[in-house]
Amino acid sequence: MCYTAKYLIEKALKRARHYGIAEDIRRYEEELKDFNDLEKASGFSHPKIIIYTNKEPYHPILSQWGLIPHWIRNTAQAHDIWNKTLNARGESIFEKPSFKDAAHSWRCLIPVAGFYEYHHRDNTTIPYYIARQDNEAMLLAGLWSQWINPDNGQSHHTCTIVTTQANELMAHIHNNPKAKEPRMPLILPDGKEEDWLQLKDKDALTSLLIPFPEEHLQAKPYQIKKSSDNPELW
């Protein structure tokens, strides 16, 4: 799974700077000027993170981690669901009510510097930080949704990280005895990012659910301090 990640503004903006035009990039940087690097963003605190949607594939926007489906009826239901939608199991996104509409129509890329996972050993947990071997940004497959709160009319942009089966490295690290099986975020290989955003065919999209090669990842034990960040949505 993936519940804690590292977000760096410079890595997140690299896609926009590579594909965008100078005038747009300056506008994006202005829009995101108040975004601070997040060394260890916990999904359970629902931070706003940078994503690229299939509707505007080179425009970085802020989205709150924890997907709220568009059909949620009120604030109480939203609060009840969004801790359960930090991750979306890739193999079932086209069937699960919370994700199927987004899987068909609202996919996104989530650029992270890396993510954290816990290894269980002798009644202790050891946090590991996982990043690309080349230290480039990981582009995680994601889903997004725009929810209008009927209670107050406010619009909320939210997202989730898609997961897949773990590769051998992540299976060793993600050995939680309570988990049904080891998982990892769906890291899109170079050249497959646009496929995730633009493909329409379900089978073609499902074919992208492949664990990222372990030889292209690095993992090291990491000491994570407790975060005091707890942003509020409402």
UniProtKB/TrEMBL annotation:
Enzyme Commission identifier(s): 3.4.-.-
Gene Ontology molecular function: lyase activity; peptidase activity; single-stranded DNA binding
One BP term from GO: proteolysis
Signal sequence coordinates: none
Keyword DNA-binding: yes
Record keywords, A-Z: Covalent protein-DNA linkage, DNA damage, DNA-binding, Hydrolase, Lyase, Protease
Enzyme superclass (EC): hydrolase
Pfam family, one: SRAP
SUPFAM superfamilies on file: BB1717-like
Keyword DNA-binding: yes
Family as reported in the entry's similarity comment: Belongs to the SOS response-associated peptidase family.
Protein name: Abasic site processing protein
Lineage: Bacteria, Pseudomonadati, Bacteroidota, Bacteroidia, Marinilabiliales
